[in-house]
Design goal:
This protein is of the alpha+beta class. It is 46% helix and 19% strand.
Length: 209
């Protein structure tokens, strides 16, 4: 068996951008339970590749245009990103996903990237506002927000996460998630929830554990 060479960059990481159209007729005619299994496989793949930088897989729903779904894959090694691509397409039954566009790019470090000192200063300046937001939340909403931060917004309703963070029943969690989305504290991105303000996310991570 031939071993593929590692293709890594001195600076930045590889990013693959994928755009797909869904064959809705095939999707609607899948055997009972097959669509749920596809979603479960995709959620598992996203959870496996959920690092803050890489490897990472993010999902998007596209409104308008030729594509229905979009994915961004991040990896330091070109071989790894190719494997992630194959695993992504394997989440769906044959013929359901139809690729309409794709391209490969490389991340760059912006000259405006904040330093640790910048972040500390901004957190100090925004402390009163973040504390006011926190005080407005119910106890259930605070617990769910903490879980979103720790779990990177994934599988918040799963039995494992509910038990680990003592979140209570799924109806309580869903109500808290809905309220946090309604108040623009978090938003839904594909299969995960994200804190809208990255500084608030950092504040929660530093002040509530």
């Amino acid at each position: 068996m031939t071993t593929l060479p590692s293709v890594k960059l001195d600076r930045g990481i590889h990013v693959m951008h994928l755009f797909y159209r869904m064959d809705r007729e095939r999707w609607s005619k899948l055997p009972p339970g097959e669509s749920a299994q596809s979603r479960a496989r995709l959620e598992a793949l996203c959870a496996t590749n959920a690092a803050a930088s890489h490897p990472r897989l993010t999902t998007y729903a596209n409104v308008g245009g030729k594509a229905d779904l979009a994915f961004m894959l991040y990896a330091a090694d070109l071989v790894q990103i190719g494997r992630m691509h194959r695993e992504l397409e394997a989440c769906f039954p044959p013929g359901v996903l139809q690729k309409v566009y794709s391209y490969l790019s490389v991340t760059e470090l912006t000259e405006y990237m904040p330093t640790d000192e910048d972040n500390r200063r901004l957190l100090t300046e925004q402390e009163p506002m973040f504390e006011a937001i926190w005080q407005r939340l119910t106890l259930a909403q605070r617990a769910v927000l903490r879980a979103v931060v720790i779990q990177d917004g994934r599988a918040v309703l799963s039995a494992d996460v509910r038990a680990r963070h003592r979140l209570g029943g799924t109806s309580t969690i869903q109500s808290a998630l809905n309220a946090l989305v309604r108040d623009d504290v978090i938003s839904r991105e594909g299969v995960r929830y994200v804190v809208v303000d990255s500084l608030l996310r950092e504040w929660v991570a530093r002040h509530t554990f």
